[in-house]
Amino acid sequence: MSLRDFPDLFKHLPQHKPWVITISVISVAVVLAVCGFSSWQLLLADSQPIGLPTEGPTVQYRDIDSREADPTPMTVEDVFPSAEIPAAQPDWPPYTMMGQPHVSEDCSVAADGEVKRVLTASGCSQVLRASFASGDNLYFATAGVLNLPDVTVAKTLSAEIKDLVESRQGRFLGYISVPEANRQLYTAPPHLAWEVRGHFLLYAVVVRQDSGEMKPGEADYVIEDLVKAYLRGTVVERWATVPESQPSTEPSEAAEPSEAAT
Q1: Which H or E run contains 127?
Q2: Among 19-23, 183-187, 243-247, the range of highest mean pLDDT
């Protein structure tokens, strides 16, 4: 199709000169060509995958739901490799270890009363614990790990301990490694907290350095730092993580944390 096919076009457009009309026609053709090319580019872009995930290292876990699947016991180096535990708040001073960590196959040393009895009957094979002074010099705390047969036993024991502590029939005990510095761990009113992760029961005993009564919630940040962030979030998380070359299974969900004060 060309201008020859419309011999009367210029007659019907007397107000325009021929070269003006020619330029207009060419302009329209160029616009149509550009629009067509842009549409083709959009269709081509739609056919390409967008946002493909980039490959990177992934965390793999091994089964820690039972001692049968996880038979190797933890060591002091696994739980307390350093004399300091960092606080969750980056600008806060760390928790400083007092004395030396303690490891025993007799789990009864970690509790008294009925809590001691149910702990002994649970099949616990190891307690690993150490005591610390908080960086703000307000609290002493014992942090510990109990090695139980499996996650079901650990959750059942956690519920039993909660009932016994609330009814004042027993409690976890602080570990006294330096009597002249932290006897309060045995005599002062404590704040107790524990949590299940796999076949481990993680716990803490917190007391005021001045042996005063613990107000509800006043030492919650110590529990967060020692039990949740350190024992669960660092120690057990590292324990359950395996090299990428080894087969893995997803770790079990942690039980709801339990807390009680006596």
Answers
A1: strand 126-133
A2: 183-187
Helix (H) or strand (E) holding 154: helix 151-166
Token duo for residue 225: 């730092």
Residue 171 φ/ψ, nearest 5 degrees: -165, 170
- Tens of pLDDT, residue by residue over 191-209, are 999 999 999 999 999 999 9
Nearest to 9 by CA among 20, 1, 21, 19: 21
Measured distance CA(36)–CA(130) in Å, rounded: 74
- Are 234 and 189 in contact by the 8 Å Cβ rule? The answer is no
* Amino acid code (one letter) for 39: S
Question: How far is it, in rounded angstroms, from Cα 227 to Cα 103?
Answer: 18
* DSSP-based three-state secondary structure for 111: strand
Contact of 151 with 179, CB cutoff 8 Å: no
Map residue 138 onto helix, strand or coil. coil
The pLDDT tens digits of the residues spanning 56-70 come to: 557 788 999 999 999
Coil vs helix vs strand at 22: helix
CA distances from 230 to 131, 145, 153, 164, 223 (A): 14, 11, 23, 26, 10
- Residues 150 and 156: their CA atoms lie apart, in Å, by 10
User: What's the rounded Cα separation, in Å, for the pair 260 and 155?
Assistant: 16
246 — pLDDT class (breaks 50, 70, 90): low
C-alpha span between 195 and 77 (Å, rounded): 21
Please report which confidence band the pLDDT of residue 74 belongs to, taking 50, 70 and 90 as the band edges.
very high
In sequence order, the 6+-apart residues with CB closer than 8 A to the CB of 186 are 173, 174, 176
